[in-house]
Write a structure and sequence with these properties.
globular; 12% helix; Hypothetical Protein Pfu-838710-001
């Protein structure tokens, strides 16, 4: 189970403070449920995601709650599946930051057609944790419930800022 909240960014933090950096490209093969392929540095992954309205406790939340399964795949399968993608490939650099002992921030700086878009995600262990989260001051508007800011939706936009 994946529980996350997503935010636009008002001001970039010092990127040199990131504890890890990944170059990511990802594409989508199906909408419902979501099937995604991703290249993360030199790893290739097939992901199944199915949206839920709450976690196992049944508590409602603004956070995105997803059933998520990731399967490593060889580069050759990734290349073959990339030919079957829906929409555009999403390209971004992900910077990972420690927020506190229980949370990390995944800061995505988008490239190519989505240049200028910067978002952060924070993952949580449960809905209560997500509901009590207070974002750092450099975070901007929360877009967890705004479907326009899912990577799947972004892959369907011709240019950032247009549908």
């Amino acid at each position: 189970m994946e529980i996350e909240r997503k935010y636009l960014i008002k001001k970039l933090p010092d990127l040199s403070e990131a504890f890890d950096v990944w170059k990511i490209e990802q594409a989508y093969l199906a909408d419902v449920p979501t099937l995604r392929i991703r290249k993360k540095n030199d790893e290739y992954i097939l992901t199944y995601k199915n949206k839920k309205k709450s976690d196992a406790s049944g508590v409602e939340t603004v956070a995105a709650v997803n059933e998520e399964i990731e399967i490593p795949i060889p580069e050759s399968i990734y290349a073959h599946l990339l030919l079957k993608k829906i929409g555009h490939t999403v390209k971004k650099t992900r910077y990972l930051f420690h927020l506190d002992e229980n949370h990390k921030i995944e800061l995505d700086v988008f490239e190519g057609r989505l240049k200028g878009l910067v978002m952060a995600e924070v993952e949580f262990t449960d809905v209560a944790d997500a509901n009590s989260f207070v974002p750092p001051e450099w975070f901007g508007k929360e877009v967890s419930a705004d479907k326009r800011y899912t990577n799947k939706s972004l892959s369907k936009m011709s240019l950032w800022g247009r549908g």
